[in-house]
Write a structure and sequence with these properties.
The protein is α/β, with parallel strands linked by helices. The protein is built from 9 helices and 8 strands. Strands 1, 2, 3, 4, 5, 6, 7 and 8 form an 8-stranded mixed beta sheet that branches.
């Protein structure tokens, strides 16, 4: 249904009334050229109304090519205040190399991620913060997870969480949702990245798509520092 929608069907002045934070992912403009137009209309109004914009680059090769993704996402990044970039998103969505594709060395590639995050801010100065998740996957179920957050020229790193996944879907969305929660609650940068990665790894303990956890449960994982999680 959304792929059949027309850009003019969205009354963004009404939809964005009273809104102070707007989120979209790289999947959104890949849906159709009309949704791409609708999204850019929304982002232009966000800038006018001084609404913070958060973007998860979230490249999906089954939806569009890297050429099309970079053409669109590089243009839309002009509106983005906070960017989430993981794995291949750096290069596929923005043409910024930061990941060599070897999942077995995920955590060890922290310096590569940092260089990519700095390059995002260099190329898109309006982007005030960048967040990333690093994974070192030993098997489908077992791996190490950590988060990095760049703000005001300083990097903040979460502890490394060792996880035995129950169902490895939705962790990226859980990370983004927790990051949005942290921004709305005005968490300090270190608390923000610790909270976001803790929510993400908790999702790996839950079947199906939704991260059915409470803020207190996420806080308990944060307090345990480098948690060992399994179910």
């Amino acid at each position: 249904a959304i792929a059949m929608a027309k850009a003019e069907e969205f009354d963004w002045k009404k939809l964005l009334d009273g809104v102070d934070l707007f989120y979209f992912s790289g999947i959104t403009p890949a849906i159709s050229t009309e949704i791409e137009k609708a999204l850019e209309n929304a982002l232009a109004l966000c800038r006018e109304k001084k609404i913070r914009v958060v973007c998860d680059l979230n490249y999906r090769g089954k939806m569009w090519s890297t050429k099309d993704a970079q053409r669109v996402m590089r243009r839309l990044m002009a509106y983005v205040d906070v960017c989430i970039a993981n794995d291949e998103d750096f290069e596929s969505s923005l043409g910024i190399p930061a990941y060599d594709g070897d999942m077995s060395r995920g955590i060890e590639q922290i310096e590569s991620y940092k260089e990519g995050m700095l390059e995002i801010q260099k190329q898109f100065p309006n982007c005030k913060a960048v967040a990333s998740v690093l994974r070192n996957l030993y098997t489908v179920e077992d791996g190490d997870w950590m988060g990095i957050y760049l703000k005001d020229g300083k990097f903040y790193e979460s502890p490394v969480h060792k996880v035995h996944s129950f169902e490895a879907v939705g962790a990226g969305d859980a990370f983004a949702g927790a990051l949005l929660h942290s921004l709305v609650r005005e968490f300090e940068p270190q608390e923000l990245i610790d909270f976001s990665i803790s929510a993400s790894v908790l999702k790996l303990m839950i079947q199906r798509d939704f991260n059915l956890v409470t803020e207190n449960e996420i806080q308990r994982v944060m307090e345990s520092k480098a948690a060992n999680l399994q179910r």
